[in-house]
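Each field is set out as follows.
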Amino acid sequence: MLEFKNINAEVKDVDIASRTVSGYLSKFGNIDHHNDIMQKGAFAKSISERSNDIYFLYQHDWSRPLQKGFNVLKEDDNGLYFESEIVDTSYGLDAIKLYENGVLAQHSVGFETIKDNHIAGKPRVITEVKLWEGSVVTMASNPEAVFMGFKSLTLNEIKDQTSKILKLLRNGTLTDDTFIQLELALKMLQTKSFELGKKHSKETEPSKDTLTDVEPLLHKLSNFKL
């Protein structure tokens, strides 16, 4: 059984001309939402023994590989650093456009845990894994749900993501599958916006500034049509 770990990616660079992306697939030392810590050295054996068989995927989807192997895959003090040239396919070009516009901004790894240390009441420390793939994911997606990670979003973050997605949907040339995924993201952003609006109304009387921010965003999301 594969495990998946999502992170707020540090996308170091996106070179559109060469279709090359660099950043981090995993970070070391932080406690994730599963109460796990990935320790430096956890990926070392996989990199040493089978680096050419580790795939770069789009949304953890093995039917949409972005590359087999990586130009660079190494551990440093921060995490698992990578550089990869994305294949020249329709979904690969979509991924580059989504990177460029800031819609794709997170990465994830798919792996089997080989060794870990787990003391009751403390986070599990993962010390060795068998790494199968690293993925670029939309809004911290995982195989069980296309889009996740909205619970911690602030209103400003929702507004920012909404603007980026709307711009791509209206002006971009993307595949049908990517359009569908982005439309789903907008619908989930809409739900989160309504939740924030309800929270403001229950906890305190909404300020004029809050209403000014929330209402136009809800109107924009509610009236969006492909």
Notes: Helices lie at 44-50, 90-100, 155-171, 176-203, 208-222. Residues 176-203 form the longest helix (28 residues). Residues 155-222 form one domain.
